[in-house]
Write a structure and sequence with these properties.
The protein has one domain. The chain contains 6 helices and no strands. It has 121 residues and is an all-alpha fold.
């Protein structure tokens, strides 16, 4: 696989992982697993499929990141991580109906412009 594609896929998987984590925590909260009992919380986390999906996505994303980074300059690859902020904002608004105010959208646009400038090289 192309090293640039590995980096981009790593960033996308990391953003998706954040959505899985949030969904898993929402599920735990709705089942009253968030309480003072540490063992009960740990059991709930262990049984939550979305938290497992979060972990799997991060393992794959980390592997892709390491493989891609072997062949690319860090000064190119690392700024691309910021596209994850953009993806998480968009996915959060879509899946969780989070209200994203105008200031955040401006920040997302600025980040996107920066990523475009880096990726265009």
């Amino acid at each position: 696989m192309n090293p640039k594609a590995m980096i981009w896929l790593s960033v996308v998987l990391s953003a998706i992982a954040q959505i899985f984590l949030k969904r898993g925590l929402i599920n735990l909260q709705s089942r009253n697993f968030i309480d003072p009992g540490v063992l009960r919380l740990a059991a709930g986390i262990f049984c939550e499929k979305f938290i497992w999906l979060w972990g799997c996505c991060f393992v794959v994303a980390t592997g892709l990141w390491l493989s891609g980074l072997q062949h690319l300059d860090l000064s190119y690859a690392y700024p691309l991580v910021s596209i994850g902020y953009v993806l998480v904002t968009i996915l959060s608004a879509f899946f969780f109906h989070e209200q994203v105010n105008w200031n955040r959208w401006v920040a997302v646009a600025v980040i996107s412009a920066g990523v475009f400038l880096i990726a265009a090289n």
